[in-house]
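Suppose you are handed a protein chain with no further information: no name, no annotation, nothing but its sequence. What can you learn? This example shows the usual starting point.
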Amino acid sequence: MKKNVIILIAALLLLAGCQSATPAQGTQTDNAQSGGGTQVSGDVYVFNWGEYMDEELNNAFGEATGIQVHYSTYQNNEMLYSTLMGGGSNYDVIIPSDYMISRMIEEDMLLTLDFANIPNFANIDADLKNPAYDPENLYSVPYAWGTVGIIYDTARVSEPVDSWGALFDERYSGEILMFDNPRDAFGIALKLLGHSFNTTNEAELRGAYDLMVTQKPLVQGYVMDQIFDKMENGEAILAPYYAGDAITMMETNEDLAFVFPKEGTNIFVDAFCIPKGAANKTAAEKYIDYMCSYEAGLANIDFTGYSTPLIDVYESLDDEVKNDGISYPEDMTGFETFTNLPGWVNDLYAELWTDLRK
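A reasonable first move is to predict its three-dimensional structure. Written in structure tokens, the prediction is:
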């Protein structure tokens, strides 16, 4: 990768560290070696964000290994967490974000990985290994990284967009979409007020809540994956969203543009993990290894638009992609990672979010 970009990501992560039931799963055997990993049988259950994978890769993995992939999606980290805590479903592979990985490690929700089954981990950029959210790199393998900004319709927005304040502008009442999860939504309000995403100051959090109360009458809907279709189809004018999806949306609708707000924004890493309760751990590790191969990694990044942690994939990208200003931004001043917060802060988030969404 661009070393100045990836080193800055690593520095941000280090700094942050200082602050429906599924059917029974298959079996695995360890008596043969194939393709650099243990030969396994049975199925693997994968739980990922929506709009975040080329699902043809799952079919290709199944054809190559005989392991069938059962794939389902969630809309945000909190939904993933509540699903696992509810015990209603058992998954072999999950892809949470940095701060949620830290929380799951703290709460003993993840299995340690056998990296002998994941030789393609060598293909991960060294600056993304041993991150603050998993400092000994026992539990996670980076899947993709990205950023958050504002996507907007240039044909219908009359003023330049350079601030989170655009999402609170009364001129666009009824045409604004907002994230439907507390950490992302509160984060926007906190940044607009000049605070850290990771504040533990109760007054600052309640001030962010008050600001979101003033925004609520302007919001068309609190949504996640629906942002993709609504903005692409011209059903809304402004929304916060992830840079990778924004790139894909702009390819379909030429009126759409994307900007990083001047107050600062979120930079994140999502990573493969194996939750406790996984019935097919070796197959899960084989799947993770496959997804970190050059061929799968390149196909996936091309499909999703997100930024790759794989060295050889990055090196093969066109200069147009490397220099588009969105996928691999040069200036990340004010970019900040989310960190795992104390329990009482998470409880306060849940309380305030419930009150806001009544």
